[in-house]
Amino acid sequence: MCQMLAQHPEIECDGLSSPLCNMVLGIRRMISDDQFFLAQLDYSFERSYAHLASAMQGFLRGWNRDCGKKAVVDKNRAWLHAVELLLQLEPDAKLIVCLRELGQIYGSIEAQHQRTILMDFKDHLADFDRFGRADMLFAKDKAIGAPLISLHAVADLPKAVQERLYMLRFGDLIERPEALMSQIYSWLGLSPLQINPQKLAMIGPRESDSHYGMKYLHKQSERVGIPKKHEIPARIQAQIESECAWYYQFLYPQHGSSTASAQAGVPAGKAR
Q: Within 10 Å of residue 47's Cβ, how many Cβ atoms?
């Protein structure tokens, strides 16, 4: 997705995961425990809180101060979890939330594990059987389960916040890249641009894969292509769909039938 966003000349995007969200969350945790700051709140709450807001906003904006383009991409899936904090500091921010059918997400991870089976995951999932590994990947603190918590919470967000989210399904993007990218550029308030999905420019340095033990690869491609579908054992697929029924109801209401004609990327927080 970053590679396709970077095709637009008004977007700054190096394709790398950013530590900015982690640092902003760290500042909030740190200042909330700081005795000097807390001591000021009884007699000057409004003034001290305004100082904090100004400082955090300055840090957020200062991170990309050398960017001369109209939009900058800050890639970190934790932003969805912290979206209300982000909008407090940067009301014009927008989030593109990338989605995929959950069985295929699991299938992609499992296929890469089989290619690197002599190495373990950072959280030591290699010793599980396939069903057990799938179950663990969907745990609330694991690679698939953790971001699902933030996605599940989207329905509870105020409508004004949901309208800052663009839910983008992987399958729709692969099938109709020109149309969807044009729609995204427009939603971001950028000049119209028609990409050539068969001739994509490569961007920046490649994201580190060794950091995650070569289990989660970051790839770029010169063209958009439909990936091979992963064959998922029926028992595992049924378990995923049962445990995450809300995901399919909310984001894949036509799961099991053709989604080629489905509208994707609805800004109001629901792909339909």
A: 11
Domains parsed from the chain with CATH numbers: 2-251 (3.40.50)
Asked if 168 and 96 count as a contact pair (C-beta separation under 8 A), the reply is: yes
- CA–CA separation, 21 and 79 (whole Å): 6
| Cβ(256)–Cβ(148) below 8 Å | no
Taking alpha carbons only, the member of 25, 149, 159 closest to residue 82 is: 25
Average model confidence (pLDDT) for the chain? Answer: 92
pLDDT at 187 over 80: yes
Amino acid at 234: A
- Spell out the residues 6+ positions from residue 65 whose beta carbon is closer than 8 angstroms to its own: none
Q: Please check whether residue 220 is in contact with residue 193, taking contact to mean a CB–CB distance below 8 angstroms.
A: no
At 168 the three-state DSSP class reads strand
pTM of the model: 0.89
* Residue 181 CB burial class (10 angstroms; 0-12, 13-18, ≥19): buried
Asked if 86 contacts 25 with a C-beta cutoff of 8 angstroms, the reply is no
Which of 260, 259, 207, 144 has the alpha carbon at shortest distance from 1? 207
Distance CA 221, CA 201 (A): 8
DSSP type of residue 206: P
**Sign of the C-alpha dihedral, residues 66, 70, 76, 78?**
positive
| The pLDDT of residue 20 | 98
Q: For 259-272, how does the pLDDT look when each residue is reduced to its tens digit (9 = 90+)?
A: 333 333 444 444 53
